[in-house]
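Q: Could you write out the predicted structure for this multi-component system? I'm mainly interested in how the pieces pack against one another.
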Amino acid sequence: MTVASSVSAAGPRERPGDGWRWLRRVGLVLLAAIPTAALLVFFCYPVLTLLGRGLFVDGRLDLSAFGDVFARPRMRSLVAFTIWQAAASAVLCLLLGIPGAYLLYRKRFPGRAVLRAVLTMPLVLPTVVVALAFKILLTPGGPLGSWGLDETVAAILAAHVFLNYGMVVRTVGSSWAVLDDRPLAAARSLGATPLRAFLTVTLPALGPAITGAFTMVFLFCATSFGIVLILGAGRLNTLETEIYRQTQEFLDLRTAAVLSIAQLVLVTLLLVVVAALRRRTDTTQRLDSGVRRPTRFGLGDAVAAVVTTLVALAFLGVLGTLVLRSLREPGGGFGLANYAALGTVGQDNLMLVPATTALANSLRAAALAAVLAVIVGVALSVVLARRPRSRAARRLLGAVDGFMMLPLGVSAVTVGFGFLIALDSPPLDLRSSPLLVPIAQALVALPLVVRMVLPVLRGIDDRLRQAAASAGAPPLRVWWTVDLPIARRAFGGAAAFAFAVALGEFGATSFLATPQRPTLPVLIARLIGRPGELNTGMALAAAVLLALLCALVLLVVEAVSGANARIGGF
Amino acid sequence: MNTHHRQIRPRAKAVRRRVGWPAAALAVTAVLLAGCGSSDGSGSSAGSGSSAGSGAGTTGAPVTSNGAGTAGDQAGTSAAAGADASAASTVGGSSSAAAGSGGGATASAGPASAVSSVSSPAPESVAPVAPGSAGEVTLVTHDSFNMNKKLIADFEKQSGVKLTVLAQGDAGAMTNKLVLTKDNPLGDVVFGIDNTFASRALDADVLQPYASAAAANGADKYAIDDSNRLTAVDYGDVCVNVDHTWFTNKKLAEPKSYDDLTKPEYKDLLVVQSPATSSPGLAFLLGTMSAKGSDGWQDYWRQLKANGVKVDAGWEDAYTVDFTGGSETGTRPLVVSYASSPPSTVKDGKATTGALLNTCFRQVEYTGVLAGAKNPDGAKKVVDFLLSKEFQQALPEQMYVYPVTAGVQLPAEWAKFAPVADKPATVDPQQIAENRQAWIGEWSDLMGQ
């Protein structure tokens, strides 16, 4: 493989190389072991503890619960609905997102950076706000009430696309941006139609990014709570909403444990299938040569432009609904009263802290989460990018890769309650630690970082590393001089994205944040849960601010890391 | 090879000089960790904001020193006591900090200081009283808990208790968490278990008896447990709310009773919440059960369904999207909400909505000392405090509920626009605990949910 093979190939003369190799191996194992251990402690242990409470009766494992639960037709249909709505959401997201990724990451046009940021904004909106925005649009008295989509699956799918579109565009786009276009040009010059060239050259090259994006969207949608609950009006249920109901409402841990295991099995199956797919499609993606031949504006470009424009218009429609409603003043008319009120503690001290303070809480937690996620995610990607010769080692790496995605697919309620009963004694009494929120957010953001960074690291031409190594550079130095400069903008993009995800994260946060230190999404939920036009207005104003802030952060981080620029040639 | 090499090196140097990012990242992490770990302690990292909000000229020094001390402990180790104090804000700082009695700073006026410490920074006359004699008490409560900071500071000063408020989700989530953590309780005292969850807490033995002398003046009316493990603090009525403006404009008489809701003139006008996912939804269902009996409610709901009742998942979507009184996109002038909601819709001295007082179910919220409390004596003082006149008086404006204590004056707007029901429906908590799942299941089947 990489440096190691080149060093050993150079023969026994280079003794120091062995020492380095040993050191590097230890280093690599540690890089993978630390996040794995963190996941075992902060995720697996709590979840298994809670499942144990449900399944062990008087110290004996009682598996009859499975029969009881799945004997009910309702439960079986839950599983089916969970799978199909998540799969449909993910496929829709890909169909709409791939053209977007092309346009926003391969084409240059004025306002591109802003458009990218706008399309990612929904990601930070609390799901309850997104659900209400869709409901406002679709309810019989709303602007689109005549479409008859209120309380339908279509509404749920649309909201899921709205929330996750940015994730697809960014994940696929960051790979596409550094894709070598020479094979495509070769295919075209050999007579392939643009469509055929796209399907046989570009699409396979983007395989890892696309399967990664699909997996993430699927997991997010399979565990989506607020959207399904509100837009499904309690009638449409998924495993997630049912686990929530059984745990929160009935404290029926036995049923909840069975459903959680079903969720785990489902997620694991998906990850195994995706890993198999990825092994097949994982041709080394070659990096951009940096030489871009000017291409004529083709049919493909037109399709991408039309699709993306339509998506952007729909997004603006939903975001516009929110903005308009946030500007409606309690006394009638439009103005900034709701925004001004955010500096206060609300009617009757409802918010406990002004939105500005909640914003500071949010920013602090999200920044910490992003830093944690990027450090751990990059470290992990460095390991996962290796292609060990032994089949077993490759399998192991694949397993670790999939393992990191697991938290996305498991109910926040399960993790939250598990935390309470598992991590309740020293040295792990974290039940009320303020570090819990950033840790939980980092767990959610970690897989996103890996999905964005890994394809790029894998695409780096090994010859560059070998060249550096044979010139005497130690491994860290090789990484520093080769990998880092090339992947820098992917890191920047991933950092911005992790920050955005952490900023909007609500599921785990609402479980862990206390009202005296609420994050902004928690505050929004609190405001929206009370009558009074001002409260609703303030909640929506805070949501709009959150989205704007996210866009701003994305723009700044990308500008600083050069993620918007084209990389210099090699 | 060599050419590659030459191209790479200068670039790398440039990168290093420009960024040195791992070091920067580590530094940022350290700062953030410190920030997150310590900002609970009152004055520390959030301090810049908090001192701005509190009284002029005072630095809040005593609070800061105390807060920083705890914060240090929390960040480093997680010794049980330290961790207890950590998540929740320290509501009181040290007793010396809380010493200054209601000085001009008026704690409630310092919004920013709410992040962490609620105690008002000591004004000019710092007169330390008996330091922390009653120790620390952790109050486990729900997310809707809200209380005037000055009131809490005064209580801390008088009792010597240092109060930490730990919110744990809504009433249901909080009760469940108490049940799950029974062997290693989250705190010393709980507030906010309501009558629909009371039996779950009692059956799981998460509480210990305490008969507060202050309960004799009204709280005893709502007693549900012979051994005094739960004491009522407040109540609220869940009733159908009506949009007066809509009915006036349509020149339609407003409905008055459960039966009216099934009449053809009110077809397609009511929106309710699913009892499976919403607490007012469950309350309304229980209200209909109480009114129609265990054999009659199913038929009543069939009629409601035939009359076009809309079922939403939660209060938010029902009230802020579908209710005409809460949203311009609303199409339904009747919604299940609280008797205390109408004061929020007052315009030009008149409430535009009202509650139908014949359709109310009463939710009662209880407090109790947790079994296994580390500081049971302090916990009892907190129970007494919740029943004190001051706390009871502040309940309506702070938490939108009615005090249980007799003779407590309601705010003027409440007296006008939020009267309580004369004969609200109630259901025995034991019955609710036993049948909750079955009833909701039956309702779901009935409504095709």
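A: Regarding packing and overall arrangement: Chain A has one domain: 28-561.
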